[in-house]
Design a protein that fits this description.
The structure is a homodimer.
Chain A lengths: L6 H5 L2 E9 L2 E2 L2 H15 L6 H14 L6 E9 L16 E8 L7 E5 L19 H12 L4 E5 L5 E4 L3 E6 L2 E5 L9 H12 L4 E4 L3 H5 L3 E6 L3 E8 L2 E2 L4 H13 L1
Parallel strand pairs in A: 5-6, 5-12, 9-10
Antiparallel strand pairs in A: 1-2, 1-3, 3-4, 6-7, 8-9, 8-11, 11-12, 12-13
Helix pairs in contact in A: 5-7
Chain lengths: ~260, ~260
């Protein structure tokens, strides 16, 4: 439990990671913790102790009885208690905790709907997995209300940015694209793994700054995230999208990396 | 205390109010609760029970030993526990709690510094006192690092929006201005009280959509919030601003209203 004066609870002042665990093994652990440390730097928070973070995750998996299964581990770091209003206390004492649940599987392709809520490229938080994730919650709500599974979020300039809980990739004329981070995009661990896996096979992924027309014109669209890996998209704003053999190829490449 | 699965803690999924209490009297209570209910409507949360909210605030004041003093009461409503990832559970059980502390007084004029973090006019959360307040925390941090007390936040279009924890007003050629809500501005309770108090005296407040050049050209600048009332500004990005008799007048009008 967390006290009522925790800054994560009161203000969204903190960060999290969502990590896939397979039979107790934390997949891409180093990449997750490197991202968490980089986020701490941006927010001005002391980074967590790596050994303590690992123990918290392993304990959460064990307590959830998921040591032999696929688990979604959520590691949360708050700025801790204290301070007055927006201002942090002079001595920060961050709070770290982990929880685990059975990891979801994406059995079907995703149906996407473009949300009205947009991402903010003028805030570093749009590139972080911060505790201030309400815009993502609202974008997902919009998508569900539109009969879809997941949202496409544009940024305030109208550029394609990401899904609510995944990064976006698309294929056009045989080339792979994903939005550039400065579009206000979470620096996804699986996004980086896909880019690295593609490069290792001589396939460049172009980091793009494009409007939604470009996405609509794509030959295929994919989602990536640590929990789902690579998931094909079969509907974008009500329009069917063909399955691409590339989705299967990407998923295999990523399975090799992860 | 709050459990680790609270959506307010994990995702910033919730709202808050900061209410001034004087000798146990909750100032502008109806306006605060009306705003909280309106925010619930936007987020899709069931509104809190008004009597329960009032009791929570009164209990917090009493427990803090502030029944005879000036207290800052924080009323927090989270979306409660449950759901999976971004998705809320089918049956929402919001969590409501209040805390109280001695209310700060603004003894000196404010020094403002313009932050790089900008507000997002394409998200309803920029107009709400939501638990996802990290951008405000970061804007305030920038201001403190620049030797100021409080931030000026522009929106992603470059329009003047608000301070990190207050609304902005300015005076030019004898006319009062404040940014329009659709600039990505919190619908401040004191902002509305100032507009109403000015109107009652035949002074219109123009709701403006202007760039920072307009603010720099102002004859005087003020901050408003429930806790501080009206506070004059004497420095904007290092440039001195003259004190205006209007600040005192506004403060008196607001004291009549509140």
């Amino acid at each position: 439990v967390t006290p009522f004066d925790d800054r994560g609870l009161l203000l969204g002042d903190g960060l999290f990671e969502t990590i896939l665990a397979r039979q107790g093994e934390l997949v891409l652990w180093d990449a997750h913790l490197t991202r968490l440390q980089a986020g701490c730097e941006v927010l001005g928070l002391p980074p967590p102790d790596l050994a303590e973070a690992r123990r918290a995750c392993e304990r959460a998996i064990a307590e959830a009885g998921l040591a032999g299964a696929r688990a979604a581990v959520r590691l949360t770091l708050t700025a801790g208690s204290g301070g007055r209003g927006l201002d942090r206390p002079a001595a920060l004492a961050p709070r770290l905790f982990a929880t685990a649940a059975a990891a979801p599987r994406a059995e079907t392709p995703a149906r996407l709907a473009t949300a009205h809520v947009r991402r903010n490229p003028h805030s570093p938080t749009s590139r972080l997995k911060s505790l201030a994730y309400l815009d993502n919650v609202l974008a997902r709500r919009e998508a569900l209300a539109a009969g879809a599974d997941e949202a496409v979020m544009l940024n305030t300039r109208g550029e394609v940015a990401s899904a609510a809980a995944a990064n976006l990739f698309w294929l056009m004329d045989g080339r792979l694209f994903t939005p550039a981070l400065d579009c206000g995009v979470l620096a996804g661990v699986m996004r980086a793994a896909v880019i690295a896996a593609a490069q290792a096979r001589g396939e460049a992924v172009a980091e793009a700054r494009v409007g939604e027309g470009e996405l609509r014109a794509a030959d295929a669209v994919f989602l990536t995230s640590s929990l789902i890996g690579v998931r094909p998209v079969n509907v974008l704003d009500g329009r069917p999208l063909a399955a691409s053999p590339m989705a299967g190829a990407l998923a295999r490449w990523v399975a090799d990396v992860a």
